[in-house]
Specification:
Layout lengths: L8 H11 L1 H13 L6 E8 L4 E7 L10 H18 L5 E6 L6 H15 L4 E4 L9 E3 L4 E3 L3 E3 L3 E3 L6 E5 L15 E2 L11 H19 L10 E4 L7 H25 L7 E5 L9 E3 L2 H5 L3 H7 L11 E5 L6 E2 L2 E10 L2 E10 L14 E4 H5 L4 H35 L1
Parallel strand pairs: 3-4, 3-9, 9-10
Antiparallel strand pairs: 1-2, 1-16, 5-6, 7-8, 11-14, 12-13, 12-14, 15-16, 16-17, 17-18
């Protein structure tokens, strides 16, 4: 197993981060005023000790049930603030979910999200066209009432029109018609039917560069190196050879960074579906030759998207090992936010995986901030969550706002 050891740059630079905290706060406030921030978002974060980076950003988060009670209170307040600001006349919120009727974990996510929104004295209902005929769904702690929902040009829930539709469906299968004039948050433009991971990271880079400039550090410490392979390149021999050469150049850049900072270990990159979610179709490679010699099984894994859709474009992204551990488990923070503010975090933990492994797997368990803090070494992880992790999460949320504006503009053209 590839082991990594490097300098504790984040610890060394913490004093710089604290010194520039007010400058960063002012800059974030200015940037948030320029655009509409997302209702909610979740950001997967990797912390190697020498760098911290958002490696994925989700517009329709589905793990609210993994948050601890303290974090739920804070994010509930942030959600209410966003709704009151953006939709001051809204009193009835309707959640449009995924069609995961047998996934008790996802149903529990809806139960918690409904409660978080209900805390603001809003009426909150749940349902979709796909759930017609179902009156309730079973979660982990109870049942969720499903309201009769129709969207055929006018959104009707139990025969009446709600004020605001809260979308908790990533739209991998395409946009949903029939909502009429009911506003939708987050907008459908962020659905995976057209959104690209690479567009997110492209939008994120200027914000990463500016934050690094304010702090006075290398931008590489706050983000990942990446590029995109398009048009089913893996299925074309000539293209695949060219892509393998790009991979080797990419890895050489990372080796130079490792040498510059005194990092021991062999850099790797992850190949991901550029338009997808749930950790489907992710493989790890450490050379161009590995790409050229991928087995049919791995190629099939890569080209399989959510719902059986075929994948055409791939994001090739720098792998960031995690230095965070609780006992024998490696740890990965997942930050949840509302209105562009990182306000809640849960942690993926896995005792069977290594430092570099993708933790979005069935063997992973979830820990709340309270559970992490109670363990040996947990307080240091929480301290990082409140500083570096929050920083890169909020940079990712700024990027999601500009990403959304870009997608809406393209829809209108």
């Amino acid at each position: 197993m590839n082991e990594f050891l490097g300098p504790k740059l984040l610890s060394d630079y913490s004093i710089l981060l604290e010194q520039k905290r007010n400058d960063l706060k002012s800059w974030f406030a200015e940037e948030r005023q320029k655009q509409s921030m997302p209702l909610y978002a979740s950001v997967d974060i990797r912390d190697s000790g020498w760098k911290v980076a958002a490696v994925d950003a989700n517009a329709y988060p589905a793990g609210f049930n993994n948050l601890g009670e303290g974090d739920r209170k804070e994010i509930s307040e942030q959600l209410q603030e966003w709704i009151i600001k953006e939709h001051p006349n809204a009193r009835w919120l309707h959640i449009w979910p995924e069609n995961h009727t047998r996934n008790k974990g996802y149903v529990e996510n809806l139960i918690v999200l409904k409660k978080l929104l209900s805390n603001g004295d809003f009426r909150v209902t749940v349902g979709s066209n796909e759930l017609l005929g179902i009156s309730e769904l079973e979660g982990l702690t109870g049942v969720l009432k499903i309201s009769e929902t129709k969207a055929d040009g006018i959104l009707k829930v139990d025969g009446e029109k709600p004020d605001l539709l809260i979308l908790n469906n990533d739209l991998s299968n395409g946009p949903i018609d029939g909502f009429g004039d009911v506003p939708v948050a987050p907008p459908q433009a962020m659905g995976w039917f057209q959104r690209r991971k690479s567009s997110h990271f492209r939008n994120a880079q200027p914000f990463i560069d500016k934050a690094a400039e304010i702090i006075g550090i290398d931008p590489w410490i706050l983000g990942t190196h990446w590029f995109v392979s398009e048009d089913k390149c893996l299925e074309k021999e000539v293209c695949r050879v060219e892509l393998a050469a790009q991979v080797d150049t990419f890895l050489e850049f990372l080796r130079n960074k490792y040498e510059h900072y005194g990092i021991k270990g062999e850099p790797v990159l992850f190949v991901k579906n550029d338009s997808g979610t749930y950790g489907l179709g992710i493989i790890e490679i450490s050379s161009g030759d590995e790409l050229l010699n991928l087995s049919n099984r791995k190629v099939n894994k890569l080209t399989y998207g959510k719902g059986g859709s075929e994948v055409a474009d791939f994001l090739l992204q720098e792998g960031v090992p995690t230095a965070l551990k609780i006992g024998n488990s490696v740890i990965e923070p997942c930050s949840y936010g509302a209105g562009g503010n990182s306000t809640a975090t849960f942690y993926r933990a896995n005792s069977k995986k290594g430092q570099m492994a993708n933790l979005n797997t069935p063997s992973t368990i979830f820990m709340t901030a309270t559970e992490v803090k109670s363990q040996e070494g947990g307080e240091q992880i929480i301290a990082a969550t409140n500083s570096w992790h929050a920083l890169v999460a909020e940079l990712a949320m700024l990027a999601m706002a500009t990403e959304l504006a870009e997608l809406i503009d393209s829809d209108e053209d």
